[in-house]
Design a protein that fits this description.
The protein has 155 residues and is of the alpha/beta class. It has one domain: Rossmann fold (3-Layer(aba) Sandwich). It is 25% helix and 28% strand. The protein has five helices and ten strands, in the order E-E-E-E-H-E-E-E-E-H-H-E-H-E-H. Helix 3 packs parallel to helix 4. The N terminus is likely disordered.
C-alpha cells in the first residue's frame, strides 16, 4: 500500500485555463473540474503562510471539494470547518495530513473509521504506527507533498 512520490523539478502538463506563479514555478491549471473528488485537510490553518492553508487555496483553484479539519476554527478560506474526523460525513477520496505524529497518532482509529480512498503524509507528518495501521485496514497511503503533486498534475 505504500508509495513514495518522486517528481522531476519543473514538470508541467495539462490544458491551461489559468496560470499561477508559485515562486520559481509557473504552473498551468487544467480546465476540468474536480468537484467529484473530496479532499479532507487534517490540520487546516487560516494562516496564509502555512502549507495547510496553501494546500486549501490550491485545491480551490483546481475546483476540488474540500473539507478543512481543525478543532478550533469554524471557517477557513470561506469553507466550513469540521472540528474532528468524526464530523466528516461525506466519503473522502483523499485525506491529506498537516499535523505531526504527536497529534496524529491519537487520531489513528478515526482515520481508519473515515475509510479515505488514500492518505497523504506530507513532510513532517510521517508516522510508522499510523502507516502500519492503515496497511492493516487496507487503506492506501503515500509519503508525498500535496502541493507538489497538485503543481505537477500527479494528484
Amino acid at each position: 500500500m505504500r508509495a513514495i512520490l518522486s517528481v522531476p523539478a519543473g514538470f508541467q502538463t495539462g490544458t491551461a485555463r489559468t496560470v499561477y506563479d508559485l515562486g520559481s514555478v509557473t504552473h498551468q491549471f487544467p480546465s476540468m473540474s474536480h468537484q467529484h473528488h473530496h479532499v479532507a485537510v487534517l490540520g487546516a490553518s487560516p494562516k496564509p503562510a502555512r502549507y495547510a492553508n496553501q494546500c486549501i487555496r490550491l485545491l480551490q483553484r483546481y475546483d476540488y471539494r474540500i473539507t478543512p479539519i481543525h478543532p478550533k476554527f469554524d471557517e477557513i478560506e470561506a469553507l466550513p470547518v469540521s472540528h474532528s474526523l468524526a464530523e466528516v460525513t461525506d466519503p473522502v477520496d483523499t485525506l491529506t495530513l498537516y499535523v505531526g505524529p504527536r497529534l496524529l497518532e491519537p487520531q489513528t482509529e478515526a482515520i481508519v473509521d473515515l475509510r479515505p480512498g488514500r492518505v497523504i503524509f506530507n513532510p513532517g507528518t510521517e508516522s510508522r504506527a499510523v502507516q502500519a495501521r492503515l496497511d492493516e485496514a487496507g487503506i492506501e497511503w503515500l509519503e508525498a507533498c500535496t502541493l507538489v503533486m497538485l503543481k505537477t498534475d500527479q494528484f
